[in-house]
Amino acid sequence: MPKRAIQTSRPEILLDGRLSMPLYKQLYERFRRGILTGQLERGVRLPSTRHLANELGISRTTAVLAYERLLLEGYLQSRVGRGTVVAHDLPIPPVLDQPALTELTETPADAPQPSGLRLASQVHLLQEALAPLHFEGSPRGAYQGGEPAVEQFPYETWARLIARRARQSLREAAHYQAPAGYFPLREAIATHLNLTRGVRCTPEQVILTTGSQGAIDLAVRTLLNPGEEVWLENPGYFGARGAMLAAGARLIPVAVNEQGLDVDSGRQRCPSPRLIWTTPSHQFPTGVTMSLPRRMNLLECARRAEAWILEDDYDSEYRWSGRPLEALQGLDDTGRVLYIGTFSKVLFPALRLGYLVAPTRLLDPLLATRYFRDIHLPVLEQMALCDFLHEGHYGRYLRQTLRYYRQRRELLLTALRAHLRGLLEIYAPEAGLRLVGWLPPDIDDRRAAELAATAGVEVAPLSRYSLEALPRGGLLLSFASSDQEELLLGVKRLAVALKEL
Fold this sequence. Notes:
Elements: H1 23-36, H2 49-56, H3 60-72, E1 76-79, E2 83-86, H4 123-129, H5 155-168, H6 183-196, E3 206-209, H7 211-223, E4 229-234, H8 238-246, E5 250-257, E6 260-261, H9 263-269, E7 275-278, H10 292-305, E8 308-312, H11 328-331, E9 337-342, E10 354-357, H12 363-374, H13 379-390, H14 393-419, E11 425-427, E12 434-438, H15 445-454, E13 460-461, E14 474-478, H16 484-499
Parallel strand pairs: 4-5, 4-7, 7-8, 8-9
Antiparallel strand pairs: 1-2, 3-10, 5-6, 9-10, 11-12, 12-14, 13-14
Helix pairs in contact: 1-3, 2-3, 4-8, 5-13, 6-13, 7-8, 7-12, 14-16, 15-16
């Protein structure tokens, strides 16, 4: 069918900023109505998000969010070189769905809602960002990522350290503590980072947080005003996206290639960002490592724009070959990089202990924000973790799990190459607990993930982590929290599912 772009000036695409319904959802409903009533025919091409945003006078993020939801629900399809079109096979019959498509007659945001439930405008965006996450009670598949092998953790040792601190130290530590956290633990972290990651810091620059997400949130709350522009890696970490959305930032997706964040592309799209988010050591989710020239270019770009850089080094402990490049923070001579790390990815997720290494001039603002957010973290786990580091348990556990994960990684690689040759191009990053399976060109990775789920295999499509269409689809395959039988069975089931494509 020939390409046809719709005219967006028609009366039905009218958005009202006075309504409590977010603009992106209004836009989603308008397109959905047009598709289901037949006004937008199957196969018709839609304008780009940039063109649509300009024509309607809205932000591009609003258009991206509306398209992303329509793509996710199957109303639209996106193909490289073809743009975005109305799906040929709609998820439901093309008739008007009355409950979902009633007229948008909500009262203005400043009027009481009938239910009495009034929420901050950003909450709706956060709910959308949470869609791919699994919470308690959710079944987990063979390749779902995000967690280490929690069954390997030495719980008896940890319980002994917690009990000892509760008996000997808790009485003295029962008063309010410093917002930055338990100082001996901050000393241990600073020493560890200096030796292993080339991070230049003193213990005073280390602020303990609730995992890496807490560090992101603290930095964003301190540095960003609503409407300010933020570079986000595309694809990138949804946790960072959620924190930026909560702050009301304007998100600027910046492509990632084999050398990491494409700084020149970011500069063309937004030359003066307020904040730059990046995972240079092991990019999430593609796994690439940012090259040294690219790192220097990024630092120079931040210096010229007077921008802050958030460097998330979420799983630098697990590396399979060579020595990692030193942290971006260690190359920074202008004090513009905030370094983020976490123990939750190495030990166990429920620990919720991470850290933010901040430039000295930001400490007072960050600690003021921290105080009025939650004052400080619970102290007992901080003291136990300090002992876990000082007594050598952390080093021993890291060596043990490195051997364990290496075996799982090699097992999965061998099986994938044997059963999925020609179906997936496997990329094995030099670090981290995931592999990336790149699909052949023009194959929809969301469709591939749906077929895999039907076969009993849970894999994440790369497009789930993207604000804009990617040049090529792929699947994330985690090997951390599955046993050998699950990994091998999952490969066979995945092969059967992908052959249907």
